[in-house]
Amino acid sequence: MTSMYRVSNSDELAAAMGRAEPGSSILLADGVYERHEDYLLEGKEGSDTAILSIRAVNKGKATIAGESSIRIVNSAYVEVWGLNLQVERRESIVLDGSRHVRIARNRFKPRQVGAEYSLLSVVGSGSGWNRIERNEFGPKADPGPLVIFDGDGERISQHDVIEYNYFHDIGPRVANGLEAIRLGLSGISLSDGYITIQRNLFENCDGEPEIISVKSGRNTIRYNTFLNSAGQVTARHGHGNRFHHNAFIGDGVKEEMGGFRIYGNDHHISDNYMENLTLDALLIDGGNYDGGPDGYPEAPTPEELRKHWRVYRAHVVNNTIVDCRHGITLGKRIPYAPEQSVIAYNRVCGEQPTIHEYRPSPAVCIHNHKADAADIRRPAILTRAEVGPDSE
């Protein structure tokens, strides 16, 4: 038997989350829900026909404020929908060891207080199959990545999907720790996530050099749009990630706008479009640690896991680079140049060299060529109307 809980203040919300069972609905009336203790949902194991829903009656009119996270712990088949999240100093939502949780049509707009925090964290053992869709993240000036997947110390969450979200106005810039999304940590980077980041819009994401920091394996980043964002999508750790059909559009003026920066083994970078960028459009970097062709050395130390791993077997194919300051760059870092990689059928339009090698590389470079502007067709890029809480 399902129940409906109508709540209008923070105490009622906390109590309803404690009592609600799978299949129940918790409906938040318009207003501000402010407290300094977490809202806890724990041990609620639903199913695809018995979803526990936490929803605003009117989208965007129920505001979670104060220093209070919504924590969903060891639960399955939960939905959080339509909230306005203005939490201070804490994560707005934490998924801890939970599965099949849907976070949809919320606005994450923290109150800027100078502390370090993230907006949405996915942690814990057994996490996976969660969906983060049609939310708005930003603005954010305080340090801390907006969305993080930290796993349980051994592996990252698996099979999650992040789609149709709007990330925007991140900064001012710091050296490290203000990514839009961070998939993993160096300590769990040899685990595979199978996470998909697709059809999101990133606009003015200037927080640090890595807009998306991939620190795990077998993830897919596709069909995203990056507008005037100072940074790069970076395969920082992990192996076997796929990056395809993304569009990077710059204004040609803002510094540090780039495309991809790659380390590790067996990455595929294909069918991406880059225009008017001021940093490397495609940086297949050198490394300062050689993890070997297999990529799984026996018992690497924490220090070794944090290093920039040599690239093996990158496939960089059929990308289009238009009027960028730098095109395809191989091997900036020393001492290990990319190995066994293929750079092929990429088109470069503009004055920059097609490929620049900082040091001799054994990469196979075939059929990369200069293209005429008349032969270049910009792909469709995402707009505000297609992403975020109000999108169709």
Automatic annotation (TrEMBL):
Record-linked InterPro entries: PbH1, Pectin_lyas_fold, Pectin_lyase_fold/virulence, PL-6
SMART domains registered for this protein in UniProt: PbH1
Protein name (database record): Uncharacterized protein
Taxon lineage: Bacteria, Bacillati, Bacillota, Bacilli, Bacillales
